[in-house]
Write a structure and sequence with these properties.
mainly alpha
């Protein structure tokens, strides 16, 4: 698949994430953000990865403040001896940035940073 199509997918997924989050469909919001992460990873696009990280952190902060009863809030996850999937998603995005920054560029690869 070409790079532009993946970029289009990313933008669509971020839009769906925001719309579903505003509608308090947190599971849909999480999964679309995770899908956006996969697009950003494939593109090796650090600004996209940072956006995913930021959005995951912002959404978790909102959930914790307004819906602590939601199963993936920090409190609910902690009560099950887990971390929130939103926190894990933010960490994955951050880790992918580190991997990209520490991987030597490959000549001739159009997706290399």
């Amino acid at each position: 698949m070409d790079e532009q199509t993946i970029r289009d997918f990313y933008r669509d997924l971020i839009r769906i994430n925001r719309e579903s989050f505003q509608g308090e469909e947190f599971d849909i919001a999480y999964h679309t953000l995770m899908s956006a992460l996969h697009c950003a990873q494939q593109l090796k696009d650090i600004p996209y990865l940072r956006e995913v990280e930021r959005v995951a952190n912002e959404q978790l902060k909102y959930i914790d403040a307004h819906h602590p009863e939601y199963e993936h809030s920090t409190v609910s996850a902690s009560n099950r001896n887990h971390v929130s999937v939103f926190q894990t998603l933010a960490r994955q995005a951050s880790a992918r940035v580190t991997i990209i920054q520490n991987t030597p560029r490959q000549k001739g690869n159009p997706l290399s940073p």
